[in-house]
Design brief:
With 201 residues, this protein is α+β, with helices and mostly antiparallel strands. 52% of the residues lie in helices and 11% in strands. A four-stranded mixed β-sheet has the order 1-2-4-3, sandwiched between helices. The chain is globular and about 40 Å long. About 8% of the residues have low confidence.
C-alpha cells in the first residue's frame, strides 16, 4: 500500500506545482487571457505520468485524450515529474509524440529552458518554464476556430507561450511581443524567482 500512497502523493504534488504555474504565472500575468476560462469551463485536461517507461505511458494517455470531444478538452497537459533528462531530450520526446497525433499540436515545456530576452521569439522559451517537464497538446480544431473568430486583440491559444504553433504570422508576433513586454515590465529576475518557487524542493 505504501508505494501506491507515495505515487498518489507525487501526483498531487505535481498537480499543485502545475496549479501554481497556471494561476500565479500564466493567469496572474495575463499571458493568455483565455487560459482561466479554459480551466474553469473544464476544457483543460491534465495527466501526471509517473511510469518508469515513459513512451508507453504517453501513448496510453494520448489514446485516452484522443477520444475526448472538444467541449471536454481544448488543451491537455501531460506532466512528467520523473523525466530526469534535459530540455533537448524532452524536445526529442515531444517530436516523437507528434508522430502519433492527429487532432492536436504538441509543444514541450521544461523548467530548464533558456532565458533569452533579446527578442520576442527567443523569450517564448522562458514562458515555457513549467515546474516539471510537460507536454502541452492544443486541439487543432480549437486553433482553427480561434483563427476564424478573431476580430482583434489577443486570443486563447493554449497556456502561456503557444504563440508559434501554426498561427498566422501577425497573431504569433502580436502574442510574442505582448508577452515579452510583460516579462520586461515585471522584471526577468523577479519572474525567474517566481518560476523557481513553483519547483519541487
Amino acid at each position: 500500500m505504501a508505494p501506491s500512497r507515495r505515487a498518489g502523493d507525487r501526483e498531487r504534488e505535481a498537480l499543485a506545482r502545475n496549479d501554481r504555474y497556471l494561476r500565479e504565472f500564466v493567469e496572474a500575468l495575463n499571458l493568455c487571457p483565455f487560459a482561466r476560462r479554459c480551466r474553469e469551463e473544464g476544457r483543460l485536461v491534465r495527466r501526471v505520468l509517473l511510469d518508469e517507461y515513459v513512451q508507453p505511458a504517453l501513448l496510453r494517455a494520448l489514446a485516452e485524450i484522443d477520444t475526448l470531444p472538444e467541449k471536454q478538452c481544448e488543451v491537455a497537459l501531460l506532466v512528467l515529474p520523473g523525466f530526469a533528462d534535459g530540455p533537448q531530450a524532452f524536445h526529442d520526446l515531444c517530436a516523437e509524440v507528434r508522430r502519433h497525433l492527429r487532432q492536436f499540436h504538441c509543444v514541450a515545456f521544461h523548467p530548464e529552458l533558456k532565458a533569452d530576452f533579446s527578442d520576442e521569439n527567443r523569450a517564448v522559451q522562458f514562458l515555457r518554464r513549467t515546474p516539471d517537464p510537460t507536454l502541452q497538446l492544443v486541439r487543432i480544431s480549437t486553433l482553427d476556430r480561434v483563427r476564424g473568430e478573431r476580430t482583434g486583440g489577443t486570443v486563447y491559444v493554449g497556456n502561456a507561450a503557444a504563440a508559434d504553433i501554426h498561427l498566422p504570422a501577425s497573431l504569433s508576433e502580436e502574442i510574442a511581443r505582448a508577452n515579452l513586454a510583460t516579462i520586461l515590465e515585471h522584471g526577468p529576475m523577479a519572474l525567474t524567482a517566481l518560476l523557481q518557487s513553483f519547483q519541487a524542493k
